[in-house]
Design a protein that fits this description.
Largest sheet: 2 strands, antiparallel
Shape: globular
Strand content: under 5%
Helix content: over 70%
Structural class: mainly alpha
Number of strands: 2
Number of helices: 5
Distance between the termini: 36 Å
């Protein structure tokens, strides 16, 4: 699901770079389709993994990191956008495509041709060793151990 969202965002940025009102409208729709599930997944993981007493801090820290990353990206893309707006959009599409490649190298296996068994995380290229992730949050595991 995560890689589908990143691919949708790469497609949206490519469509926007092509120009024209119809393609720009399509780019906005595709970007929404790609971003919506990603944002929902981020919130779900934060909620599931953060201990209840720290959940507010985790959400605020995540939001702060996101805003900081956005500001750094804008600072880097600004000079590129001044020279070539389509170039800046295509650079953004390339970053999204690289995110898909990075995700593919460390994704959870489904057991269907992924090179790993269901529920295992591949920590290297396809065919490399896999390990089963720990279940539950760190907080829940600590309670079980005590």
């Amino acid at each position: 699901m995560v890689w589908c969202g990143a691919l949708a965002l790469a497609l949206a940025l490519t469509l926007a770079a092509a120009g024209g009102p119809v393609l720009l409208t399509a780019a906005v729709v595709v970007a929404g389709i790609g971003e919506g599930p990603q944002l929902t997944a981020v919130f779900a993981v934060r909620h599931r993994e953060a201990p209840e007493r720290l959940r507010g801090r985790v959400f605020v820290t995540g939001a702060s990191l996101k805003i900081t990353g956005f500001a750094l990206g804008a600072a880097l893309a600004g000079p590129l956008a001044v020279r070539s707006l389509p170039g800046a959009l295509l650079a953004g599409a390339a970053v999204e495509a690289l995110a898909v490649v990075a995700f593919a190298s460390v994704r959870v296996g489904t057991g269907r041709g992924t090179g790993s068994a269901p529920g295992f995380i591949r920590t290297g290229p396809v065919g490399s060793e896999c390990r089963r992730p720990e279940t539950g949050t760190r907080h829940e595991r600590a309670e079980e151990e005590s």
